[in-house]
Amino acid sequence: MENAPLVDLNNLFDVEEVRLAAEKMMPENYKAFVNNVGMEDTLRSDISAWSELRLRPRALVDVSNIDTQVTVLGKRIAHPIIAAPFVGSSFIHPEGEVATARASVNANTIMTLSMNGHKGPEHIGEIAAGSFWQQIYWVQDRSIVEDVVSRAVASGASALCLTV
C-alpha cells in the first residue's frame, strides 16, 4: 500500500471515480473481504440511490458564514456526519478503529464502534470518551451483550446503537 499512487481528491467528480480511486489503494485482503461478504450488492444499491439525488446549485449566494453544526443526542458536533460501525477497518489500516476514533475527535464528530471490531471500547474510550457510540448486536447469549454494554459505558460511550 505504501507504493499506491496519491489521488488528487479535487479531480474526483462522481461516486464511480471515488470507488475506482479507492480500489486502487485497497490492500488485497480488504478487497477479498469486501467481495466475499456481498458488499458489491450494497455498493450497487448505494450508487443507484445516490444517482437519484440531484444537487440544486445556487450561484451568487454568500457562503462565507455557514454553520454546519448539529446537536445529536445532546452532543454538539461540527456537521451531520457520524462514523458508522465498520468491522473491516483494520483491513484498511493497521490502526483501524483507533485511527477512526482519532479522526472523529479531530473532526468534532462521533464514532460508532462495531461490537465485532478488533479494538474494544476500552481502547476507543481512551481517545474518544463521550464522542463514541457502541454498536450492540442483540445476540442470544445475553452475557455477551451485558459485557460489551458495561465495558462501553465504563469507557465513556455516550449512546448504544442496537443492530438487529
Plain-language structure description:
- It contains seven helices and five strands.
- Helices cover 43% and strands 12% of the residues.
- It has helices at 15-25, 28-36, 39-52, 89-92, 96-106, 121-128, 142-154, and strands spanning 70-72, 75-77, 111-113, 132-137, 159-163.
- The strands form two sheets. The protein has a three-stranded parallel beta sheet with strand order 3-4-5. A two-stranded antiparallel ribbon has the order 1-2.
- The longest helix is centred in the first third of the chain and has 14 residues, at 39-52.
- Strand 3 (111-113), helix 6 and strand 4 form a beta-alpha-beta unit.
- The chain is globular, with a radius of gyration of 18 Å.
- With 164 residues, the protein is of the alpha/beta class.
- The model has no long low-confidence stretch (mean pLDDT 87).
| Largest pleated sheet | 3 strands, parallel
Based on CA inertia axes, which overall geometry fits?
globular
Helical content band = 40-55%
Q: How many beta strands in the DSSP annotation?
A: 5
| SSE order | HHHEEHHEHEHE
**Poorly predicted ranges (pLDDT <50, ≥5 residues)?**
none
Instruction: Kindly estimate the percentage of residues that lie in beta strands according to DSSP.
Output: 5-15%
Number of DSSP helical runs: 7
**What is the C-alpha radius of gyration, as a whole number of Å?**
18 Å
Question: Could you tell me how far the N terminus lies from the C terminus, measured between alpha carbons in angstroms?
Answer: 35 Å
- The assembly state of the depicted protein chains is single chain
Largest beta sheet: what is the strand line-up? 3-4-5
Mean pLDDT rating: 87
Task: Provide the structure class.
Answer: alpha/beta
